[in-house]
Every structure is written in structure tokens, then in C-alpha cells.
Amino acid sequence: MRTFGVTDVGAVRRDNQDYFHIEQLQGRTVAVLCDGMGGARAGAAASELGCTAFFANLSLALSKQDVPDGDVLLSDAVSYANLRVCDHSRSDKNCEGMGTTMVAAMAEGEVCHIANVGDSRAYHYQNGTLRQITRDHSYVEELVEQGLLRPEEARNHPRKNLITRAVGLNYRLKCDCFTVPFGIGDRVLLCSDGLSNVVEDEAMEQILRREEEPEGACRALLEAALEEGAPDNVTVLILSR
Fold first, then answer.
1. Is 230 helix (H, G, I), strand (E, B) or coil?
2. How confident is the model at residue 40 (pLDDT cuts 50, 70, 90)?
3. pLDDT for res 72
4. Do 69 and 111 meet the contact criterion of CB atoms below 8 Å apart?
5. Quick check: 110 and 183 in contact, CB under 8 A?
6. Beta partners for 238?
7. 128: which residues sit within 8 A by CB, 6+ positions away?
8. Cross-strand partners of 189
9. Are 25 and 48 in contact (CB under 8 A)?
10. Could you report how far apart the first and last alpha carbons of the chain are, in Å?
11. Judging by DSSP bridges, how do beta strands 121-126 and 111-117 pair with one another?
């Protein structure tokens, strides 16, 4: 398994509220990416706390004798992260209203389990084709699903950054879970909306075809976002078999 991750403040923002971590846990490769919100201090705190809490819960669960299946493991870890961020938001007035998106991947054997909340995305690259796995929890995505907005219109919609689900906003939270095949040569790409909002999926696919190594691909994707003006923080992670 080869992995790499990179994050950048972008060309406009002063602070980086994205946070990520990649770790090997009990023979599994786990990656989490969070994109915080709620002001510079609160957003950064939410993303780091959410990521740290996620790994703490997952590590404990994997150390036990009876380990649940992948979807349950990730869902429980997201729920615990949500609890921790909610508690912190309510105990510290400076962090009131903070929250974070979260997208996580756990590769075990020939499958990869994925969980997401918000509009940070997971993609699956297989046989030269890039496919979006997650569905954005956003206002414009709901309009697209209802047939009220075309996908190409969603990219430039004035309310495209309005998300409908986030870690830390409500004690009751449901994440989406997915399982994809993860064979030799496959890659799973996790990214914040700082990449997906400015770089088309087709352009990402072309970069992944050109750059086979995770580090080279991550850096090329970041550079593509910066060339497009990078109005937001940009974070890219890749897991490759």
C-alpha cells in the first residue's frame, strides 16, 4: 500500500482549516480528511478534533477481540467524532457553531470502506477511469437530485458551499457509507472542496493517468487547483495498491 497527502492554504485564505491524517491500524490503512468551518480558530479546531477523535475511536475498536465490519467501524468513529466536536462547541464560546466535513477511507484486503459527511469527496480510480463515490451533502446537490438544477450549473451556483450535513452541528448525525473494490493498481482519492470546486473531474482523471505515484499525483492535483486560483484551502490524499 502506498499513500500520500498534501494540504495547502490556497491562494486567497489566510488560515488553513483543513486537517488530515493517514495511519496503519491493525493491518488496515486508514485516511481521514476534515474541512472545518465556523471561523478561522473554530474551523481549524473542529477539523483537528474531529480527525483525532475519529482515530481514537477506531483504534480502540480495532484493538478488541470482536471487530465489527468496516461500515460499522467507520460509522461509529464518525459518530464519536461528532460527539466530541459537539461537546467542544457547546463548552467553549469561542468555538460556538463550529463544525467540519469529514471523509474517511479504510483499506483492508481487496476492499476499501468509505464514510462521508458534508462535501469533502472520495473518488475511485480504476482502469484509467475516475468515479466519484460519495454524494455531497449540500443544497445544490439536493437541487440536482430533484431535477431543478443541471450538474454543470451546480459548479457556479451562488449557494454551492452551503452544506446540509456536518460533524459537530447536531448530536444526531448520519454518515453515508460505501464499499468499493480495491484491487492492484486501484487508487482512492480523498479531497476537500478546495480541489473539487475548481478542478473538473476529467482533469483530475488525466492527472491520475499521468502520475502513477501517490505523491506525484497529489502534488499535481494541488498545483492544478492553485493554477485555477485556489480560493479555498486545498487538501488531497491518495491510497494506492
1. coil
2. low
3. 96
4. no
5. yes
6. 4, 189
7. 205, 209
8. 123, 238
9. no
10. 5
11. unpaired
Q: Give the angle subtended at the CA of 73 by the CAs of 101 and 65, to the nearest 5°.
A: 150
- Those residues whose C-beta lies under 8 Å from the C-beta of residue 57, and which sit 6 or more positions away, are 76, 77, 80, 81
Cα of 37 vs its chain's centroid, Å = 14
Q: Residue for cell digits 475511485?
A: 124
CA angle, residues 188, 74, 142, in degrees to nearest 5: 70
Contact 238, 29 (CB under 8 A): no
Q: Going along 9-110, which residue ranges are E strands?
A: 18-25, 28-37, 99-108
pLDDT 10s digits, 154-197: 677 767 678 999 999 999 999 999 999 999 999 999 999 999 99
Confidence of residue 134 (pLDDT cuts 50, 70, 90): very high
Helix (H, G, I), strand (E, B) or coil at 77: helix
pLDDT digits (tens, 9 = 90+) for 112-121: 999 999 999 9
What span, in angstroms and rounded, lies between the C-alpha atoms of 107 and 26? 11
Nearest to 144 by CA among 124, 119, 168, 177: 119
In what order do the strands lie in the sheet containing 111-117? Answer: 18-25, 28-37, 99-108, 111-117, 176-181
For 17: left if phi > 0, alpha if psi spans -120 to 50, otherwise beta; the answer is alpha
Which DSSP string corresponds to 171-184?
S----EEEEEE--T
Q: Quote the CA–CA distance of 108 and 61 in Å, as a whole number.
A: 15
DSSP H or E stretch at residue 162? none
